[in-house]
Amino acid sequence: MKITKILIRRFGIWQDLHVPLAQNGLTVFYGPNEAGKTTLLQFLRAILYGFKSHDAAASCRFGDPFGRRRHGSRIDWEGSLQFKHHRQVYEIRRTFHGQGRGLLTVTNSTGQTPAEELVGDLLNGTEEKVFDNIFAIGLHELQELATLQNDKVAEHIYAVALGPDGQRLLEVSTDIENEGNRLFDPRQWDSEQQDRGKLYKLFHKFDQLCAEIESVNGLIRQHSELTHERNHNEIMITDLQGRQAGIQAQLRGHLFMEHIWSPWNRVRLCQTEMDKLPIVAEFPKNGLARLDGIEIELSTAVNGRDTLLAEASQFRREAEQITIDPEIQRHAVTMRSFVDQSHWLQQVHERIVTSQRETDELCQQMDDQFESLGPEWSASRLQAVDTTPAAYFRMVSMARNYQSVLARREKLRRRQQRLSRIRQQRLAELNDQLRQFGGVTLDDALTQTRQKLVELEELGALKLRESELEHRRVGLLNQSKRLQARLTLPKWVYAVLGIFAVTGAVLAVLGLVSGLTTNGIAGTIYSLLGITCGGLTWALKTHFEREVQDSIELLQDELRENEIRLREIRTSIEHVTALETITADGSVPVNDAFRLSEAELIKHVTQRLIELEQLTQQQQQIHNLRRRLSNLRSRFQSIQRKIATTRQNWCELLTQSGFTETIHVDEAFEVWQNVVEANEIHRLWTSADTKLQNLRQTYETYRKRIEELGHRMHRWDLDYEHPLNVLLAWEEDLQQYSTQRKDRRYLRREQKARHAEAEKYQTNIDELKTQRSALLVQGGAASRKEFEQRAEWYKQRHEEQQRLYDAKSDLEIAARTEPELAVVEEDLLAYNADSNAECIRTLKQERDDLKQDLQQAFENQGRIRQELTTLESDRLSTQLRFEREQVAAQIKQTVERWLTFELSSRAVEQIRADFERTCQPKTLAAASHYLQRLSNQKYSTLWTPLGKRRLCIDDDQSNTLLVEHLSGGTREQLFLAIRLALVREFTRRGIELPMVLDDVIANFDHLRSEAAANELIDLGEQGQQILFFTCHLHLAHLFESKGFTPIWLTEQGDSHQERRAG
Amino acid sequence: MPFQALRFIHASNAYVDHQLEQLGALSECHRAIVEEATSTAFEHVVSACIERQAHFLLLAGNTFDKSDQSLRAHADLVNGFIRLDQHGIQVFVVAGETDPLTAWRTLDDLPQNVTLFSPDSDEPVAVLRDGNVIASIAAAVIRDEKVGHIQSITRSGELSRNGAARTIPFSIGLATIASERMGVTVPDDGDEHNESEPSDPGLSGQVRDALAKCSVDYLALRGPEKRQTITLKKRIAHNPGGTQGQNPRQTGPHGCTLVEVATDGSALCTFIPTAPVRWKQSAVHVGAKMSQDELAESMQAAHQRCRPEPTEQLWLINWTIRGSGRLFDLLRDESVRSKIVALYELDSPLPPDLSQMHHFRFVPQVNPADSDLEGNEFAIQYFERLNLAEKATRKSLQQCLEDAGLPEGPWLTRLRSLIDEVDHEAIIAHARQNGMTWFTP
Fold first, then answer.
1. Do A217 and B430 touch (CB under 8 A)?
2. Do A872 and B74 touch (CB under 8 A)?
3. Is the pLDDT of residue B155 over 50?
4. Would the ipTM clear 0.95, i.e. be above it?
5. What's CA B282's distance to the chain center, in Å?
6. Are A903 and B20 an interchain contact pair (Cβ–Cβ within 8 Å)?
7. Secondary structure of A630-676 in the HEC alphabet?
8. Which candidate from A878, A892, A905 shows the least CB-CB separation from B418?
């Protein structure tokens, strides 16, 4: 759409304004402030999209808003734009009566399409907001970033769809950022959520533990103080102990005096007494008592001798009266020997009876054992069986070996059965799941599913392409329809052409007639005029229709090409969709597939793929199980062979040992046990029988000897068949004989004893007499009286000596108690017991006081030691340091985790940075180009971070700046560059609208103003219509110098007068 | 006077009551063992001195950490020294980086048997037995890294030559700087106790020079690394390692060294375990088709030849799981890990009374070359950038930290210090895995 003329009937300060414009390129308007440039901008917006209340308000100073004519009548805004669009000339007129957006009329409309719809088609669906922010902008819109944040505008700038790569990068970046924050976000360290700001938590805990350890370390000072106190206390104790030793020494001296004075005084008194007694040098010890004893013994001995002699005579007479049998006396020894052995003989007899009973019992048991072993067993075979421990050991070893092999086989069988059961179960499950694929193998299903996933992704792409082509087709059809409508020329044209044609025909006929009838030349002229009119008619019609026809044909060609591509795409989609229907699993019916979105389908197929991979793993496990089962079978067969060998060995061993062959180990051992028992019973029976025979022989031999002795003694009345009865009788005889002999011997012995004792008495009497004489001589006395006097003197002196001895002993003992102390006799003579006791009491008092002090000091020392021990055994510091190490280890682990993400993050960020700079939206790429030129190569790249609506600019030093960091002028250059890029993008999409720029480069410096001017001129030369308003004369001259003469808008001389311009 | 045989114990880096570092989650009973680990190890050192009837104990530095300000360390040390004093065993202490001489001097209740060596003093101290000097100990052996300064202790005398009976006492030098600052490093050859001379002669060049020039019979080194013995003729430089591993890097058994000097002056070093806790680092590769049983078997195989020392109560096993596949992904689940650990412990060759704690470090092995990345520009670019970052991981991580926009302060300082400690391999591997998740279908 190219505006060719601006016609303002009345709008704001403008009235009856007619401004013709160049159809292509740049048109510059210059006018000072309040010249009506902004009003023109508003007018253009209003004509295309309708009047707004503030348009009128903005111009109210030039008349009443919504208003009123100055002369009391109502006024209307009215104006029109003439423009060319696809070689057609249109005029859009809008009349505003104070309400709504104004009445719209379009001249040159076919009338088939309503004016609003036609304008909408001309604008190609461009929204008003987009037009206001992109195409028709003033300095205010240019400076405001928010005008670019409008959804529709932003969609073009930031390219909302990132594409799968961008989306993935964005997701990865977000994940990394979240993870990093989770570990190391100081703002989240107090969060309740686990791992939120974990590192900060750990560092905080570490610091806390360090502080606690520091506080605990204060105990060192306490320990040092206690150590010093302990040392001080030890010194004090030493001092007290020294004083205590001194007092103790004094006390010892006084106590020593107290102890020693008493025995010393006794010695002194005893010595005085002894000096008074006569001296008896020697006297027999216990002289008087001994003399009395000798005389008493002498009298007793005389009486005893006489009594004994009388008793001896009486015993001799009684012995002569006893008589004894001579036969018994002769054979008494033999008889005694037999009688002595009667008990043994009795035992022999009893053993014979017992042995007989045992032999009978064993015989019975042996019979029973043979019966249980079977008829094939006899005593001889029993003897032949090897039942030695070695044989038993061999048998047990072989049996164990055999049973061990059997157990291993059983274990293998169970394991094999268990594995087989598991495998079958898993195989059944796998088959159940594989059955869903309708006979397709798992690998094929996996391949098909992967293929399906690829096709689904392809389907998504195709559908997107189909949508684009469909949209394009509809656009082409609409355009074609509009051209078809333009193909029909207006009726007046046909009327004029008809007149020309008719006139031409008439003139041709008239010329022909005139030429034939009147004048050939006139006829020729008429004919030529007629031909000219006809030709002109034909030429005009052809001229008007050919251009439209050409456009229609071009559109038709494009439409056909578009339809072909669309058909191809749809064929591809049908092909892919058809593939869907024949997929192996059949899990997604065609109808469902159409209903589901591609994303859901992909998700579904991905899920299926995971399931298939799990099935593959299951299949592998089953394969492993089969392999293990195969191994187990091999081992089982090996075991079977081993069992056969072992069983054969076992049977051979049984045969060699004399047993019947059997494979039942328990049975064999039962037979073994029975045979061993039978052997044992047989051995016992043989032994018992031999023993019985021996006993019988002994008994008979002994009976014969008794009978022989009885006959020798002429004792025919006894029954010798029962020797025990004979021995009983003999025992009675021997007892009688023995009693008689004993009595006679006793009497004779007593007689001799009495005689011997009487002789002893006599000897004693002689000795006693000798002793009495010797004793008297020894005492220095001749008589008993004199002896008694000397004995008294001797006794007194002896007692005094004893007392002296005791006193000296006491004195020595007392002196030995204090060997280090020495006492002189003068001190003892001057000793005063009372004053000494007083000293002792005083010293004891002092000693007790010191003891108490010492006790207290020791208690204090004990307390200090206890406290020291408590401090030294305190584990708190150790535990805290342990916990600190634990936290340090956790910090290390978390830092490793954090660094992993940071390292990953750096790599991803670099990838992302490359991606953001190299894969930026097309609009930003074009804007970068414009910005580079507008800023004279100062800023090279304009890009936006993934997923963010934020602009970043790289300068020539490769520094990245945000919009906020740019200067005002540069920011305006940036926004102008973005708008130029957007306009180009719109043009590429078929939206061709004029740009209206109201003083947008007013803040540019000279160089950048020139660069901007050049850029606008270039853009204009590329076909973009630009209306550039400025109030700066230098800008007007700048454009003028470049060949673009501005349209000079005159300054408003009278603010209340309406103006005409242009 | 003939040369007398002697026996002493050399320990270093005891760090009494210092907490073990980089621990994972622990149960209460294990926590008690870990908390007491360094103190228990020192007790074992003292007990070893008494049981082996050592003539003296050499503490070659870093016996405790001053910054801990631990009363328990103070008490444990004093009690241990008193026990040694009761058995007539002397203690010779040289200060280290964490226990400077000033810190030792604050321990005002040290018993009489403790001798502190000052790096400023060259005077040797004689060790007496029955009135005879059996050894001389000097601390100021090495003033700094310059070998030339070692000559100050050459007065101790030379070893016997030509088989002549030796009369000069055994001389011991206590190095005042850590062995790694002297160029002694130990290659990482697994976590088992391994006492051998470094294969690279250049590694121990300074120590060799020191041995050659200072003429001590025994140069007592200290270092956080594994124990190490360097011999030059009959002279020995020995680093017993720490009495207890302090962090997951200090793997294997730890303890002290019993040095037995024969009458001919030859010394025999014997390792005496003291550590109640052992760190272990084991790596297992998880294949794409590996089962849980196979993983447990691989884990058992990794420890097949490991035998615990009698003092050990707990093994802290750090598993590095590399690989990919379903089992690798499942291992992120705690319950799956527990199940595998149960399988591992079921047939573990280790004694049942030895507690074990397992911590897992996952290094996903994602190979972009295995994936079809053709046409996937994002993935290709991402992995190219990671490959670039991998070549200079530290610098890249530092750059990440600086670019994160964190405010300056102690936390940022700490984060900077963590750059060298974090697991660069795992970070790159996880970043690669992220890329596979994000950019490949």
1. no
2. yes
3. no
4. no
5. 17
6. no
7. HHHHHHHHHHHHHHHHHHHHHHHHHHHCCCCCCCCHHHHHHHHHHHH
8. A892
Q: What digits encode the pLDDT tens for the residues A881-914?
A: 888 888 888 888 888 888 888 888 888 888 888 8
Lowest mean pLDDT among A183-192, A382-391, A631-640, B151-160: B151-160
Q: Do A900 and B421 touch (CB under 8 A)?
A: no
- CB of A1 closer than 8 Å to CB of A999: no
A689's tokens: 């029988």
CA–CA separation, B226 and B194 (whole Å): 8
CA nearest neighbour of A684 among A352, A386, A358, A357: A358
Chain A contact set for B426 (CB, 8 A) = 896, 900
Q: Is residue A256 within 8 Å of A793, Cβ to Cβ?
A: no
Task: Name which of B79, B134, B267, B270 is nearest B193 in CA terms.
Answer: B270
C-alpha to C-alpha distances, A312 to A318, A743, A746, A764, nearest whole angstrom: 11, 16, 12, 20
Strands (E), A442-553: none
Confirm if A969 and A1005 have CB atoms less than 8 A apart: yes
Q: How far is CA B380 from CA A398, A905, B111, B368, B392, in A?
A: 69, 15, 69, 8, 19
Q: Which residues of B63-102 are buried (b: 16+ CB within 10 A; e: fewer)?
A: bbbbebbbbbbbbbbbbbbebbbeeebbbbbbbbebbeee
CB contact under 8 Å between A908 and B397, yes or no, is no
DSSP for A371-400, written as a single string: HHH-TT--HHHHHHS--SHHHHHHHHHHHH
- Contact across the interface for B404 and A881, Cβ inside 8 Å: no
Q: Per-residue pLDDT averaged across A297-306, rounded?
A: 82
- Residue B175 near residue B142, CB atoms below 8 Å: yes
* Local structure of B132: helix, strand or coil: strand
Task: Give the sign of the dihedral formed by CA A316, CA A319, CA A320, CA A326.
Answer: negative
On whether any CB of chain B is under 8 Å from the CB of A211, the answer is no
User: Which chain A residues have a beta carbon less than 8 Å from that of B69?
Assistant: 217, 220, 877
Q: What is the pTM of this model?
A: 0.51
pLDDT digits (tens, 9 = 90+) for B121-139: 667 788 887 778 888 887 6
- Cα nearest neighbour of A219 on chain B: B71
CB-nearest to A902 from B35, B106, B404 is: B404
Mean pLDDT of the residues in chain A: 80
Strands laid side by side in the A14-20 sheet: A14-20, A2-11, A77-85, A88-96, A103-107
| Alpha carbons within 13 A on the beta-carbon side of A351 | 18
Yes or no: say if B383 and B368 are a contact pair by the CB < 8 Å rule.
Answer: yes
Given an 8 Å threshold on Cβ–Cβ distance, is B400 in contact with A899? yes
Asked whether the predicted pLDDT for residue A235 surpasses 80, the reply is yes
Q: How far apart are CA A963 and CA A1018, in angstroms?
A: 26
Nearest residue of B to residue A220 by CA position? B71
CA distance A694 to A697: 5
Q: What is the pLDDT of residue B398?
A: 82
Q: Which of residues 879-918 of A touch B (CB under 8 A)?
A: 879, 881-882, 884-886, 888-889, 891-892, 895-897, 899-908, 910-911, 914
A572–chain B Cβ distance below 8 A for any pair: no
CB B124 within 8 A of CB B156: yes
Give the whole-angstrom CA distance, residue A377 versus residue A809: 102
Q: Which of A175, A895, A907 sits opposite B418 (nearest CB)?
A: A895
Widest CA span in chain B? 88
Task: Find chain A residues with C-beta within 8 A of B65's C-beta.
Answer: none
Dump pLDDT digits (tens) for B350-381: 777 888 888 888 888 777 666 666 677 778 88
What does each C-alpha distance from A1000 to A79, A138, A973, A1030, A1032 come to in angstroms? 25, 6, 9, 8, 11
Residue B84: its pLDDT value, please? 92
Of B23, B397, B414, the CB nearest to A886: B23
